[in-house]
Design brief:
Elements: H1 3-13, H2 23-33, E1 36-42, H3 48-58, H4 61-70, E2 71-77, H5 88-101, E3 109-113, E4 119-124, H6 131-147
Parallel strand pairs: 1-2
Antiparallel strand pairs: 1-3, 3-4
Helix pairs in contact: 4-6
Length: 149
């Protein structure tokens, strides 16, 4: 039992990023909180670069801390395994998002959007930057957006 407080303390230091499941809600939250939207198209159970991006970038502490203060995150996932299938409403939403933002079906495709859904920056495939550089680039764009509005 002596280890429990230490384990809880360590657990509390871990950063968890919340991905917004609904794009309309993400836009509303982005407007209300003056944040940008990071929209990621992934194939979570079949796309190697998508899995790598999740593990190496999105789950990194540096990205999580930046995202928590600057972004509303949306993952438009297109899993193939039956066990990973999304609910019908989410599938429809992701299809609509793909029609608008990813008509060529690229995976991963990551877009930085303003609260109105306008594309500010896109990354086609796994980014060339490491997690820290990726987060710094997004932070710079966020700063420019806040400064120029």
């Amino acid at each position: 039992m002596k280890k429990l407080p230490f384990i809880l303390f360590c657990f509390s230091l871990m950063s968890f990023i919340k991905w917004q499941p609904d794009f309309a809600t993400a836009r509303k939250v982005a407007h209300e909180n003056h944040k940008l939207i990071l929209l990621n198209f992934s194939g979570s159970d079949w796309c190697g670069p998508c899995m790598r991006m999740k593990n190496e970038i999105f789950e990194s502490d540096v990205f999580s801390k930046m995202a928590d203060t600057s972004l509303v995150l949306v993952n438009a996932d297109f899993p193939r395994n039956k066990k990973d299938r999304l609910d019908e409403q989410t599938e429809k939403q992701n299809d609509v998002l793909a029609d608008k933002y990813n008509p060529d079906g690229k995976f991963p495709l990551t877009l930085l959007l303003d609260a109105d859904g306008n594309v500010l920056k896109s990354w086609d495939g796994f980014p060339k930057e490491n997690a820290e550089e990726f987060a710094d680039e997004i932070n710079s764009i966020c700063f420019d957006q806040k400064f120029n509005h």
